[in-house]
Amino acid sequence: MAGALSAPVFAAEAADGPELITNGDFSDDTTGWWWTENSPGSVVDGRLCAEVPAGTENPWDAIVGQNGIPLAAGEGYELSFTASATVPITIRTNVQMATEPWTTEHSSADQVTEEATTLTHVFTSGGDHEAAQLAFQIGGSDEAYTFCLDDVSLTGGAEPPVYEPDTGSPVRVNQVGYLTEGPKNGTFVTEETSALTWTLKDADGTERASGTTTPKGVDPTSRQNVHTFDFGDFTEAGEGYTITIAGETSEPFAIGDDLYDSLRSDALAYFYHNRSGIEIDADLVGEEYARPAGHVGVAPNQGDTEVPCWQDTCDYTLDVSGGWYDAGDHGKYVVNGGISAAQVMSTYERTLTAEGADGGELGDGELRVPERGNGVPDILDEARWQMDFLMRMMVPEGEELAGMAHHKIHDRAWTGLPMLPHQDPQPRELHPPTTAATLNVAAGAAQCARLFEDHDADFAARCLDAAETAWAAAKAHPDILADPNDGVGGGAYSDNDVRDEFYWAAAELFVTTGEDTYRQEVLNSPLHGDTDAVFPRGGLSWGATAGLGALSLATVPNDLTDAQLRAVREMVTEAADGYAADSRGAAYGVPYAPQDNHYVWGSNSQVLNNMVVLATAHDLTGEAAYRDAVLRGLDYLLGRNPLNQSYVTGYGERDSRNQHHRFWANQLDPDLPNPAPGSVAGGPNVDIQDPVAQDKLQGCAPAMCYIDDIESWATNEITINWNAPLAWIASYADDLGSGGEGGEDPGEEPGEDASCEVTYTSHRWNGGFSSNVTVKNTGTTTLNGWELTWSFADDQRITQAWNAQVTQTGRNVVAKPVQWNGTIPTNGTVSFGFNGTSGGQASNPTAVSLNGSACTVR
Q1: pLDDT band, very low/low/confident/very high, at 762 (cuts 50, 70, 90)
Q2: Are 389 and 322 in contact (CB under 8 A)?
Q3: Is the separation of the CB atoms in 387 and 441 below 8 Å?
Q4: What are the Cα distances from residue 482, in Å, to 48, 252, 334, 402, 498?
Q5: What Å distances lie between residue 411 and 301, 482, 505, 692, 845, CA to CA?
């Protein structure tokens, strides 16, 4: 499990079936064993040793294995072996079909070092196989090394292990915290059926409030007997609060108004981290996350600047460089990228239309993008990186399908984990155009046109031309659908109903242009007026996009008549009423109630998208019930759930750390980082399609079908279209509080003539913390060069920083600008951040000086 969690508990009995491995002790030399040609094997001192060459890219580039292994469906097996390697490496141990489609019955990532170690795995075969294969995949090392095996055994008759996830305290809370004036709810897992007393204590252990729980019975999503509790009447800001019930104590949490400022920034930084075609700068993200540009044609990359079509389906190449890597792989998908870009743009567009929304936090110089300082809001700079790519995916003029958009671009074959983008050796290929992809470009480019009009008129005009061209092409080719079998090297992303994409694109084009043609397309759509069709109960997604168009129609000024606008807004509020009712009725407060509790792949994004609808309804009506449901959704995502798990990296004591990703892969390679703070895991998925989930989670309750393991791509992947609604919601939630401008420290007595103001926010996680600092020049002259100094009150140690040069001597810290942010104009700001380790509370400093003068600290 993740670094913040203790090891799960397993219970298994030894296997007693017949031995299925031939010559597992190598007493008969190499009989029964094979290896790939590049890694010749021989028996040395009673062990089979293979010489693995340097520079293999994927685990399967070098293999030692044995074929002819019979497996029976439903049978439990125990696999054990002893392995060593002269270079530390993570190998993949697979029991699988010996031919395509290589169906895998067991897969594990095993860390092997110079010291011979015995490893044991128990699994259940999902199918019958007359001649399966045991394959030790040992490629993927830059260095040549020797791999050795001994005592290999595979026997049937094993009792499958009973996986018991470590869920920590049965008192479940939002591990980040609660807004001062917002709802404050939690859940308690217990066998008791009568009400119990809860006690709220502060960081010193002093009782501050108490009450009684409400028994709720058995929660169908978790199969747990639960109580809920409400401490919303307590509104005193502070950190380190806990709730105790029946001798059990929750994880600590805060109460305050600036809890989500750093989450807004981190969730948006996710997109810069995952840019393709550009170096990721240590000055922006820290040394740990810096990396060379990927897919720019520098060996071993073949590059994205002249990409041919898959299986020769076209005779041209396209420059499709740039954009965002979609998820755990290096693919770029238009239907996933379209909704992601739209929601990033909508995060900004909301600040232009919603009362109390703070666009300053998204403005020029505020986010981690290299374009900062160009006079354009940083969030639009980030969106432009993706929109430019999406428009590059269009079929050029003169071709048969001119104006259509290619569905995706990715590697010819799957690559293994871990692999940084610049190390990817696979050929890249464009997959055929589709109507869905084309309408994604039309919708996103129409939104882009109106948002960039005031910042870059030429780019806005390019966006509008692309939008209208794509719309015309989609109307001419309304039923070109993605092949559901096109899933080699990248996801298929097939969709057999594009009415929702037509609705979305028509809505965005109408809002931008006001043309009646697009209005009629909206009003005449079979989806229009059908709330359940526009806003599915299970949530918006890349395959259900009509709601994006309705949200724009409902919130962005346009030429709908009063009656037409009222009808659209009624769809929004009707959908929000349903989601709010789901939240109120749920034992864990989650605004998500799919049919039969069927939590889907990426369920956390479905939760977030329901929260976007709720938040929009709150913006439109001011009704607190919608706001409260949004905040209960954040509670669920940040720890108030059946697993007591924060699904957002860097937020909460028990946060996800091992999401499925090719270059944030610390679980497989300790030289690589965990996911960056602000990365949201996909979450529970009852279909548990990957081998790790199938091994561990058979029979899981719907909301508990999750494991924080890098190999569990079905429950623990991270993607751009899941982080986009997280960024939207973090921005909304921060606006509900103080928008990053928290109240003064109770012990602070700033002078009336202070010429600087510092907003310092931190979030702790197990053994560490993340802090964000914003410095505002409140003086009368521009500062050319700045130096910020403060001292920690405890044992905090900074390990990495971005947007500033930060040095620490003992408890004293000095922060200086990087090349591009050395000037702070009057009333201007600069922001930077850092991560670190701490064994204590990681308290914020109460005294900070700028160029030797004391600042007001907020």
Answers
A1: confident
A2: yes
A3: no
A4: 47, 47, 12, 17, 11
A5: 11, 17, 29, 24, 48
Is the per-residue pLDDT at 379 higher than 90?
Answer: yes
> Looking at the domain covering 756-857, what would its CATH class be?
mainly beta
Choose the catalytic residue: 708, 709, 711, 734.
708
Under a CB-based contact definition with an 8 Å cutoff, are residues 93 and 79 in contact? yes
Tokens representing 103? 């169906």
Strands 332-333 and 253-256: unpaired
> Where does the pLDDT of residue 764 fall: very low under 50, low under 70, confident under 90, or very high at 90 and above?
confident
Give Rg (Cα) of the chain.
27
Residue 30, CB half-sphere, CA atoms under 13 Å: how many? 14
Task: Given the residues 378, 468, 695, 717, select the one marked as catalytic.
Answer: 717
Q: Do domains 18-156 and 756-857 have the same CATH topology?
A: no
Is 717 one of the annotated active-site residues of the chain? Answer: yes
Nearest CA to 631 out of 675, 580, 706 is that of 580
HSE-CB at 555 with a 13 A cutoff on CA atoms is 29
Average pLDDT, the chain: 93
Compute the Cα dihedral for 338, 340, 346, 351 and give only its sign.
negative
- Give the amino acid at 269: A
Token readout for 479 is 């039923």
Instruction: State the Cα–Cα distance between residues 56 and 74, nearest whole angstrom.
Output: 36
Is there a catalytic annotation at residue 708?
yes
Element (H, E) at 507: helix 499-513
Tell me 98's DSSP state: S
Going from N- to C-terminal start, the domains of the chain cover: 18-156, 171-255, 756-857
Cβ-count burial 803-821 (b if 16+ within 10 Å, e if not): bbebebeeeebebebbeeb
DSSP for 618-635?
Answer: HHHH--HHHHHHHHHHHH
Structure-token pair, residue 150:
């001994």
DSSP string, 449-473: HHHHTTT-HHHHHHHHHHHHHHHHH
Of the candidates 196, 181, 175, 174, the one whose C-alpha atom is nearest the C-alpha of residue 234 is 181
Q: What is the CATH number of domain 18-156?
A: 2.60.120.260
Token pair listed for 747: 């012990």
Tens-place pLDDT, residues 403-446: 999 999 999 999 988 999 999 999 999 999 999 999 999 999 99
Closest CA relative to residue 168, chosen from 413, 18, 287, 4: 4
DSSP letters, 21-87, are STTTT-TTTTTT-EE-TTS-EEEETTEEEEEEPTT--SGGGSEEEEEEEEE-TT-EEEEEEEEEESS
N-to-C CA span, the chain:
37
Distance CA 94, CA 107 (A): 4
Burial of 585 (0-12, 13-18, 19+ CB in 10 A): exposed
- State how far the alpha carbon of 172 is from the alpha carbons of 184, 349, 600, in Å: 12, 35, 23
- In whole angstroms, how far apart are CA 337 and each of 151, 459, 487, 547, 738? 48, 19, 17, 16, 31
847 pLDDT higher than 60? yes
**What dotted CATH number matches 171-255?**
2.60.40.10
| DSSP H/E element including 637 | helix 624-637
